[in-house]
Design a protein that fits this description.
Layout (H helix, E strand, L loop, with lengths): L56 E4 L6 E4 L11 H12 L4 H6 L12 H10 L5 H15 L7 H5 L3 H6 L4 H15 L5 H6 L2 H8 L7 H10 L12 H11 L7 H7 L7 H13 L10
Antiparallel strand pairs: 1-2
Helix pairs in contact: 3-7, 9-10, 11-13
Length: 290
């Protein structure tokens, strides 16, 4: 089962109750259980929600009277054995997750991913569209650029709004895609810098792009960069899953989400994946999937 959510969904309406799944990620594994069908990033309407980073690991030096603080390594979820480490941690840190982990096959990832620019452009194109319509527009967009390998900032900037409108891209989305390409051209962003940024920097930099909000960045971090410790506190499916898991009367707000799921660190991405599964099952668990 793939843990990846469709990047095309990045931006479909996070507070919406419609359950249209985000389009398949650029390197999605085949799975009988698609990601949840409700999420959104309504034209950057989310409040700015910083991603919590891991606590540093203090190492006391034997011959020094000071403490050197070193960051805990953050391995991508594609690394061999990382999912097993995540599941063991979640079982021990939150017993309520044990039944969920026993009820679903663990998430799995492919090691290859598409370039960040392509993934982000695709996420913008898929915003607030039904999957079939979004697929058609994306395919025409790729063809206009000359293939997926040619979806690069210079080629995107060479397309004017009228050309994009003819293939079904709205004027607003055209401005978003051009803004993303301009950020690359001006050196504000690059594929290499995005891969190297920490979570907080990613949120800061990517939300500078028109049309990309916090929810979109969380999805990108989880399903394109495979970051292990992302908690999408604004995602409706994850919030519903947490509500069911802890028997809450109301949907948890962002601060409550942070508090309740703090014990899942440093594998909140995997915990969030199980919340989507739990939400889809409406809180009813069956035997382990075949």
């Amino acid at each position: 089962m793939s843990l990846r959510l469709p990047l095309q969904a990045i931006g479909t309406c996070q507070s919406s109750t419609s359950l249209n799944p985000p389009p398949p990620p650029l390197t999605l594994l085949k799975t009988p259980h698609p990601p949840p069908k409700s999420h959104s990033d309504p034209e950057k309407s989310e409040n700015s929600l910083p991603t919590t980073t891991r606590s540093p690991n203090p190492i006391t030096q034997t011959h020094l009277s000071l403490v050197t603080v070193l960051p805990i390594p953050v391995n991508p979820l594609t690394l061999e054995g990382e999912i097993d480490l995540a599941l063991n941690h979640l079982r021990s840190s939150d017993p309520l997750l044990t039944a969920l982990i026993d009820s679903y096959k663990p998430p799995a990832f492919e090691s290859q991913s598409s370039p960040p620019f392509l993934a982000l452009a695709k996420s913008i194109l898929y915003q607030q569209l039904a999957t079939n319509a979004a697929n058609a527009i994306y395919n025409r967009f790729v063809s206009l650029c000359g293939g997926e390998s040619e979806v690069v900032p210079d080629n995107v900037l060479a397309l004017n709004a009228n050309q994009l409108r003819k293939i079904g891209v709205s004027g607003r989305k055209a401005s978003y895609i051009h803004d993303l390409a301009n950020k690359y051209r001006d050196g504000v962003l690059s594929d290499s810098s995005i891969v190297e940024m920490d979570d907080e920097s990613l949120l800061t930099k990517l939300t500078l792009v028109k049309g990309i909000g916090v929810w979109s960045v969380h999805m990108f971090m989880m399903f394109s960069l495979y970051k292990p410790d992302v908690l999408p506190v604004g995602d409706l499916g994850v919030r519903k899953g947490v509500q069911l898991l802890y028997g809450l009367k109301e949907l948890p707000k962002p601060l409550q989400m942070e508090e309740l799921c703090d014990k899942w660190k440093p594998y909140r991405s995997v915990g969030a994946w199980y919340m989507w599964r739990f939400m889809e099952a409406k809180g009813v668990l069956t035997s382990t999937e075949a």
